[in-house]
Design a protein that fits this description.
about 180 residues; alpha/beta; Dihydrofolate Reductase, subunit A; 8-stranded mixed beta sheet; 4 helices; 10 strands; about 20% helix; about 30% strand; globular; binds NADP nicotinamide-adenine-dinucleotide phosphate
Length: about 180
Amino acid sequence: MLAPDIHLIFACANDGVIGLDNKLPWHLPEDLAHFKKITTGQTVLMGRHTWDSLPSAFKPLPNRLNLVMTKQIHWSAPGAVAVHSLEMAKELHQAHWSKIDPETHTLTPAIWVIGGAQIYAHTLSLAHTIEMTQIDLDVKGDAFAPALGQEWREIHREEHTSSKGVRFRFLTLKRF
Ligand SMILES: NC(=O)c1ccc[n+]([C@@H]2O[C@H](COP(=O)([O-])OP(=O)(O)OC[C@H]3O[C@@H](n4cnc5c(N)ncnc54)[C@H](OP(=O)(O)O)[C@@H]3O)[C@@H](O)[C@H]2O)c1
């Protein structure tokens, strides 16, 4: 198996806010559906805070390999696979997907980095693509999206308005 592609996926409000008090400071079901569609059948890599923030009904995220980055050597949680480095994440990703029958799994799985701020910052330099949901909301935050350099260019944009009237857009960015 070739080295996996690594992509980031995040939603951010104005000023790059992605979280407050270890929660998402908005409720946008359309974005949750988008997240599910993009990441299902692949690996999700998250920081331990983000794992803690998931509601228990969604832990582990179904039909995905759930890798959780932590520096705690003895950390464990049902349905999660602890990793202590990006190298370890890639190795466990390869080992997991090499066991799956390619006839039943046609997509080449990627590693989707799903947050939070620390893990986005740690993985950004290796990412190929970013799926960003920009939400037109002013909210308080204590966790922020990574700063993107000029090498990142938008290649796709979809404008939407939520059922509650909030404007948001799905952007795909690629590294050039
Ligand atoms: N809007 C979005 O799309 C989105 C997505 C995800 C999360 N969020 C938000 O982001 C916030 C959480 O972000 P965060 O930055 O506080 O936490 P985080 O990135 O989810 O997790 C941080 C933890 O990851 C582990 N870690 C970090 N760097 C590591 C490394 N190099 N090696 C091994 N382990 C490492 C450490 O775990 P240990 O302490 O166990 O060692 C650290 O405490 C929340 O508000 C959440 O709701 C938003």
